């Protein structure tokens, strides 16, 4: 790993022709939603910039983010991992293990102090001094804080690192928290999803390496290029929603005809992600295309928003499982009964005092 | 309008004078009708009525849509029309509300009643209590009021004004999701969504807000009819003509 080697040099060393390299730059520009004029800029950046190391930490997680990442089609994860970024530490993907692996982490942190990108998959549990997640003999919380100290920027992979996800769902016994609750002095790019789409993950890294800056983020810290619209906004079943054609039951005619899954609880209208445009597994499909509603996996606290199959969320705070309409009709019914009773008493009182 | 208020003030003075001189006889007086609700207030009231009815009906069917429409998707636009009606009514009610705020500044003193209950005036709370007793059948006669009675002010403020502001903010936050990031709706109201958690939470709260306003409407309509019959002044016709009539000439 030479300090002076550029992305381009690495790619050439790997036998990639200049023609392929330029094609790749155009493809990346398109994938990032940039205009054709950006392709030469990407090429220029890759010819002149030295590789940026990425440290990839794993906290409380299920490795679904890594599994998604290695299935990236555009750009091929092979290019990302081996050519573009120098993924110096990722205990799931790297060849070395144990003390050797931990030594690489330290070495990279010192060598590229303030320059490396820290990618975090999973999140730290705070309960019992962080003892619910131990990495290299120490709580993950310590490793996270240690590695974050000299990072240029931090990528929060997946819903775990971004929001908390399943381990932070009620009642959250380990007190798992998203990483922005622990690290407050670094720019954090949230790439939520359970897992995030592979092309979204590589796209975010590519952008950061090419332009040397954090992509434009929305109010909640997600890259706008992939998270600025809801699944619903770009869903191919949207015309059925506007027409008022819904799947009412899982085995009805509407389900066979591919109508909108709104009534059976699809969370597409409240979920910000790129599933309906980028899709999954090299653009093969996505949940709604497979006939199941979106479960809103890239949204904050999606495990605690009631059933995946209800349109209106159950509100547990009222002691019983009831949604807004059930509570509303109960309250309105109670008020209506009170009004009727009050009106009756008023009428009696008035009759009594008639003529006064 | 100013003359009628003045005439009332004069009458009040006479009443106190008589009281001080220790006269026991009941003083009768002629109370002329008072112009309370100016035309923009009345117009706003009825526009808001029809808009909120539209919003509640369409909003209900956005959360719990009607049965599936037959035929091709291109032949139907039911959900689209329902949502259009909801958004159009929302704009009307919001612009109306802003206009009403403006009128609270430039209108007569009654136009400010809804927005500024006199929380820090002890006598005002006493009259709230009097109204509560009247509604619990513990007072034989209610007091006369030109504008809203203190209990009504309290109800209008917490049920209606607070409810409306809540619905406008959550509603436009949800609308901004469709309008897109960077739209003025997003700039002004987009921050509401992370405040509540996520989009689904805002949907739930917005729907609870609908039921809050429905409860308000039920109480509002009942009380208006009841007061029209049982109180000492006109209620319903006042919101049509603007004039408050008093049914007796007895003192307040």
Automatic annotation (TrEMBL), chain A:
[4Fe-4S] cluster 2 binds at residues 232, 235, 260, 266. Residues 62-207 form the NADH:ubiquinone oxidoreductase-like 20kDa subunit domain. It catalyses: H2 + A = AH2. It is an enzyme of class 1 (oxidoreductase). Its cofactor is [3Fe-4S] cluster; [4Fe-4S] cluster. One of its GO terms (cellular component) is plasma membrane. Residues 227-308 form the Cytochrome-c3 hydrogenase C-terminal domain. This is hydrogenase (acceptor). It comes from Alteromonas lipolytica. The lineage of its organism: Bacteria, Pseudomonadati, Pseudomonadota, Gammaproteobacteria, Alteromonadales.
TrEMBL record, chain B:
InterPro entries: Cyt_b561_bac/Ni-Hgenase (IPR011577), Di-haem_cyt_TM (IPR016174), Hydrogenase_cytochrome (IPR051542), Ni-dep_Hydgase_cyt-B (IPR000516). Residues 36-242 form the Cytochrome b561 bacterial/Ni-hydrogenase domain. Residues 8-22 have a biased composition (Basic and acidic residues). Its main location: membrane. One of its GO terms (biological process) is respiratory electron transport chain. The chain crosses the membrane at residues 43-62, 82-103, 154-175, 208-225. PROSITE patterns: NI_HGENASE_CYTB_1, NI_HGENASE_CYTB_2. Residues 1-22 are annotated as: Disordered. It holds the Pfam family Ni_hydr_CYTB. The keyword Nuclease does not apply. The keyword Transmembrane helix applies. It is a multi-pass membrane protein. Belongs to the HupC/HyaC/HydC family. Probable b-type cytochrome. This is Ni/Fe-hydrogenase, b-type cytochrome subunit. The lineage of its organism: Bacteria, Pseudomonadati, Pseudomonadota, Gammaproteobacteria, Alteromonadales.
């Amino acid at each position: 790993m030479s300090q002076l080697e550029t992305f381009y040099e690495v790619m050439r060393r790997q036998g990639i022709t200049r023609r392929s390299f330029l094609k790749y730059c155009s493809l990346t520009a398109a994938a990032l939603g940039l205009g054709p004029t950006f392709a030469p800029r990407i090429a220029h950046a890759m010819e002149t910039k030295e590789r940026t190391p990425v440290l990839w930490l794993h906290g409380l997680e299920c490795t679904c983010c890594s599994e998604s990442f290695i299935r990236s089609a555009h750009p091929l994860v092979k290019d990302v991992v081996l050519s573009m970024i120098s993924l110096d530490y990722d205990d799931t993907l790297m060849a070395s293990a144990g003390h050797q692996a931990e030594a690489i982490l330290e070495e990279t942190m010192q060598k590229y102090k303030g320059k490396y990108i820290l990618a975090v998959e999973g999140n730290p549990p705070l309960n019992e001094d962080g003892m619910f997640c131990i990495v290299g003999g120490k709580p993950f919380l310590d490793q996270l804080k240690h590695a974050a100290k000299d990072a240029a920027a931090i990528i929060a992979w997946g819903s775990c690192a971004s929001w908390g996800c399943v381990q932070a769902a009620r009642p959250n016994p380990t007190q798992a928290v998203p990483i922005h609750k622990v690290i407050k002095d670094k720019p954090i790019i949230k790439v939520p999803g359970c897992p995030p789409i592979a092309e979204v993950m590589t796209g975010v890294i590519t952008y950061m390496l090419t332009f040397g800056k954090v992509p434009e983020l929305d109010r909640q810290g997600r890259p706008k290029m992939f998270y600025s619209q809801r699944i619903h906004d770009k869903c191919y079943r949207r015309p059925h929603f506007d027409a008022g054609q819904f799947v009412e039951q899982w085995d009805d005619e509407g389900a066979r005809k591919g109508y909108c899954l709104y009534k059976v609880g699809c969370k597409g209208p409240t979920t910000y992600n790129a599933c309906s445009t980028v899709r999954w597994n090299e653009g093969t499909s996505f949940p709604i295309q497979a006939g199941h509603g979106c479960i809103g996996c890239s949204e904050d606290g999606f495990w605690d928003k009631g059933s995946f199959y209800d349109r209106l969320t159950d509100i547990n705070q009222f002691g019983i499982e009831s949604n807004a309409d059930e509570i509303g009709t109960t309250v309105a019914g109670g008020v209506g009964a009170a009004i009727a009773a009050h009106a009756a008493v008023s009428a009696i009182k008035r009759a009594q005092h008639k003529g006064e | 309008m100013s003359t009628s208020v003045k005439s009332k003030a004069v009458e009040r003075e006479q009443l106190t004078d008589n009281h001080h001189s220790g006269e026991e006889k009941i003083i009768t007086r002629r109370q002329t009708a008072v112009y309370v609700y100016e035309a923009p207030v009345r117009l706003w009231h009825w526009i808001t009525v029809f808009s909120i009815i539209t919003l509640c009906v369409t909003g209900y069917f956005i959360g719990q849509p009607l049965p599936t429409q037959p035929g091709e998707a291109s032949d139907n636009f039911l959900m689209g029309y329902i949502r259009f009606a909801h958004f159009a009514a929302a704009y009307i009610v919001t612009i109306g509300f802003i206009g009403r705020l403006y009128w609270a500044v430039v209108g007569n003193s009654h136009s400010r009643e809804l927005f500024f209950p006199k929380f820090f005036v002890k006598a005002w709370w006493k009259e709230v209590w009097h109204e509560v007793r009247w509604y619990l059948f513990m007072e034989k006669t209610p007091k006369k009021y030109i504008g809203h009675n203190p209990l009504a002010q309290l109800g209008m403020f917490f049920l209606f004004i607070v409810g409306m502001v809540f619905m406008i903010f959550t509603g436009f936050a949800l609308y901004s999701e469709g309008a897109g990031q960077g739209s003025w709706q997003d700039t002004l109201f987009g921050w509401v969504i992370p405040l509540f958690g996520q989009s689904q939470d805002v949907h739930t709260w917005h729907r609870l807000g609908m039921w809050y306003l429905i409860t308000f409407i039920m109480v509002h309509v009942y009380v208006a009819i009841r007061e029209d019959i049982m109180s000492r002044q006109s209620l319903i016709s006042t919101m049509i003509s603007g004039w408050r009539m008093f049914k007796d000439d007895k003192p307040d």
